[in-house]
Amino acid sequence: MSAETVILDGNRVADAIKESLLSRVANMAEKGIVPCLATVLVGDDPASATYVRMKGNACKRLGIQSIRVVLPEHTTTEELIAAINKLNDDESVHGILLQHPVPKQIDERAAFEAISIDKDVDGVTTLGFAQNAFGFAEFPSCTPAAIIAILDYYQIPVEGKHAVVIGRSPILGKPVSLMLLNKNATVTTCHSKTANLADIVRLGDIVVAAVGKPQFVQGDWLKSGAIVLDAGYNPGNIGDVDYEACEKVASAITPVPAGVGPVTIATLLKHTVDAAEKVARK
Ligand SMILES: Nc1nc2c(c(=O)[nH]1)N[C@@H](CN(C=O)c1ccc(C(=O)N[C@@H](CCC(=O)O)C(=O)O)cc1)CN2
Questions:
Q1: Is 168 annotated as a binding residue?
Q2: 129 inside domain
Q3: Can you give the residue range of the structural domain that contains 37?
């Protein structure tokens, strides 16, 4: 590790976010309101089951209620939408999270669209995405918002910087590209058809890896001193970045685990509390 490389500690950022929620949850409890997150898990993917369990446990530690809806692998789109509609109609539920990915037979987009905008704490609906694009989303997607929270926490300047985002998924690469653009970065979004990927990544002052391929980003793809944010969550807790090689070149880098992941969960809790407070104000 070069002496100057800052390890961007996601647990520290997550703890700060969760700490800020304690008094807000307590204030609502005095009024008899308990923020409530409903997670919906479809199928048998063990990693997804782990992430949903982690979200439920994080809620519990903060005094947020969580409802876990688990549907079988063979669930149809219609059955999933019916389950989501039930949660939309349940006044005790403030936020709904449909765990991605869902089994192949399901139209994931249609299921995401079924989530009521007031409860879309994961920023997955078209309206939520569009609000994020214009820079006024109440609930931007949690992993992109976590990446921005890490940059903010460590006071890393974004304005005027060249941010290279590798990946264009609807809940990660695209929204984080827009969020960086809204912070006045010059943004290049790369994807599977991008030519000369390494040359483009080398232009990045900030590099966001959101590609879903373990240890994909190589150290010699980076400009010296680049800020590297690894949003990968591959099996075995392996990120999208070759960490050992990249930390030698980067000026700051998120590890996996303990980087973007814990901040994603803290952000989800924050959005759930925001949604509950909004209902309480009505
Ligand atoms: N609807 C959504 N689905 C998915 C999202 C999402 O934001 N919304 N993101 C990913 C996975 N994910 C949350 O669901 C997620 C992955 C990893 C972590 C995390 O904290 N990982 C830990 C290590 C895990 C462990 O100890 O086993 C870490 O990085 O320190 C949080 C959230 C896919 N689906």
A1: yes
A2: no
A3: 32-116
Summarize pLDDT for 190-239 with one digit per residue, the tens: 999 999 999 999 999 999 999 999 999 999 999 999 999 999 999 999 99
Structural domain includes residue 163? yes
Tell me how many domains the chain contains: 2
Atom number in ligand 1 closest to CA 100: 3
Q: Is residue 175 part of a domain?
A: yes
Nearest to 216 by CA among 252, 256, 185, 175: 256
Q: Is residue 198 part of a domain?
A: yes
d(CA 97, CA 125): 11
Mutate to test the pocket of ligand 1, among 99, 106, 147, 272 (most ligand atoms within 8 A of CB): 99
Average pLDDT over residues 1-17: 89
Predicted confidence band at 279 (pLDDT cuts at 50, 70, 90)? very high
By alpha-carbon position, which residue is closest to atom 19 of ligand 1?
261
Write the CATH number for 67: 3.40.50.10860
| DSSP letter assigned to residue 48 | H
Q: List pocket residues of ligand 1, CB cut-off 6 Å.
A: 50-51, 97-100, 122, 142-143, 171, 233, 237, 256-259, 261-262, 264-265
Q: Are 7 and 241 in contact (CB under 8 A)?
A: no
User: Which positions are annotated as active-site residues?
Assistant: 55, 99, 122
pTM value surpassing 0.90: yes
For residues 38 and 86, the answer to whether their CB atoms sit within 8 Å is no
pLDDT at 3: 58
What ipTM describes this predicted complex? 0.96
Pocket test of ligand 1: the residue of 17, 233, 243 to mutate, having most ligand atoms within 8 Å of its CB, is 233
Q: Are residues 95 and 182 in the same domain?
A: no
Q: How far is CA 45 from CA 103, 116, 231, 235, in A?
A: 9, 25, 19, 11
